[in-house]
Write the structure tokens for this entry.
Amino acid sequence: MIRAFTLISLLSLLIPAIASAQKPCVISGTIKDAATGETLTGATVKIKELPQNGTTANSYGFYSIQAPPGDYTLLFTHIGYQTITKQISLQHSQTINIALNKNSELQEVVIRSDKPNNDQIASPLLGVEKLNMAQINQVPVLLGERDILKTISLLPGIKSAGEGNTGFYVRGGASDQNLILLDEAPVYNASHFFGFFSTFNSDAIKNVSIYKGGMPAEYGGRLSSVLDIIMNDGNNKDFTVQGGLGLIASRIKVEGPLVKDKGSFMVSARRTYLDLFLKASSDSTIKGSTLYFYDVNAKVNYHFDDKNALYLSGYFGKDVLALKSIFGTNWGNSTGTIRFNHIFNNRLFSNTSLIYSNYNYTIQGSQNKNDFKATSQITDLNLKEDLQYSIGNDHTLKFGLNVLHHTIAPGNITTTATSSYNNKSVEQRYGFENTAYVSDEWKANDKLTILYGLRLSGMFLVGPGTFSTYNSAGNTLSSTAYGSGQFVKNYINLEPRFSASYQLNDENSIKASYNRNTQNIHLLTNSTSSSPTDLYVMSSNNIKPEIADQVSTGWFRNFKDNTYEFSAEVYYKKLQNQIDYKDGAQLIANQDVESQLTYGAGRAYGLELFLKKKYGRFNGWIGYTLSRTELKFDAINNGNYYPARQDRTHDLSVVGIYQLNKRWSFSGAFIYGTGNAVSYPTGKYEVGGLTTFSYSQRNGYRLPSSNRLDIGATLEGKEHKKYHSSWIFGIYNIYGHRDPYLITFRDSKTVPNTTEAVETSIFATPIPSVTWNFKF
């Protein structure tokens, strides 16, 4: 960390010297939505007379651009908004704040990528997709509930974990290797209803960005990807109410000004009501059961002046499932973010954040007076400082620090006096994950743009607690007790990041990138899909940080006046210090859980093809991925490489959206994927009259391939001055294909001495949905 602080200090000393050598004037300001006051992330600013001079607004709408003194025409653009042209006489530095109006013409409101027309060609980043909510809201999904995670799984290189699961795999990485951020706060379990829906209510979301390669230096802590989700700020012009009524859930959002043009608030809530239907059941067991989830998003912001703004945002969600008083479980996330923006001058922008995140679950059971309650949680407290400095039009510098404190309570089991079970408590673990980073986006010339940076990460495991070390067989070698705050183990890693784009011409570019990521929070699970009861652990004296080195390259092309985008990317990822469980491992409420683990390596490589039509009445995309993901552990499969459970050779998605007129639009989504790698029994034996299956190799077989077609239609209501409504219709799995969710084995009931496989599918028939949305 001392080296990191020294690096940042040197940069702060160099910046004034660099700045003093520059003579051009600086134009800076903030770009917002004229109707709501929302800042517009990714809006572009160009100088017509200097076409090589251009910039993009950051996450808070701030931009900075430079030019020599003179008379110029400024162009302010953003997808879906009317372009503003502003004539200026530039003799000294100026602040120009801009409010853009949405374009109401049909040709302009059709779904587009949230990027400038040539951004795919000029940007040095590979493997990055940005989605706006209009695009997400058009894709048909289960039971009419718009879902960010289901939508991004339709992009190449991103694979859904399967039906009944919101987990996703990015370029061969496991589901826990994705960093999911909601207003900068990490979300550890992004699922409702055991994965049927995600925790993200689309009404509350402004922007979604997914980074799967060439990750900028400001992001880290996970190996595979970053999903960065930004909530709406709230309307600082007028009060509005919107929401929707669906078959299983309803939602509502209220927003408005605290002080007009200076501050606003937004509150959004969603709840299912399946529990109301359960109460009406004639089945006495079901009638007394509980099944629902709810979530609440809230955000407040206040702009003290043009240079200072405060943002407070939070999320709280919970799932509750109970079978009378026999069994019950609940889990939930809560996050809170306080951010302060300060513009030091027309070149230097600062964002200071204090972030809280908590994920917890509880399981309760009661049968024959054997009562028990099991709990677990992970809590983070994070202090960040991010700065952006515009050295010139050719260099944009970003640098910052991050201090993150983890507290993990692996599990406690409490029982009543009448229970035959014993109380059990697993020690909490504490640690600091500290980072410093610096990066520079350098426009070397009109054709070459380079983004390079360095991230320094440090993991520090601290007491109190008793820490053991184990040999490869899982036997305890030593145990040492540490007091509060004592350092147990630390790891320091440097993570270089590099990506570059070379424009062959206005329509073609080639790109390449290399990046290293490390991960110190690890998910332990021996189930086939993510579960609310999965266990998180930190890097320790037994568990080393996971490391991934990824190289990628690609060809990017726009054609037909930027109406179409095409990209072809190849990647190779080397994985170190991978974690898996030993055969027969016990992970729940185990103080010595690290003795149940084994460590190895992995590799992932593939080809991604993506064709998107951005404009016109008909648009959409086709994505295809050809890939392999393999792991190698000495204790598994005799030390040979074997397919990871997320390995899928082929993955295809086709999305189409057609705008018939101003009121009717239609959409469809088709997916196909190779079946997941699974372990099937190769033998069986009897113990006490019960059949036990034996397994010879890990993930040596495949589930059948999956495919599905979903369709949707949206009917916009007639226009009223103060009121608007729409109806959304959909059919999930329209041709009723039985995608395999689980395959189990049992003794055949009809043919003695044989074994039969039993396939379980969740949605074996078409599932219709209808939702009524309103806004006034």
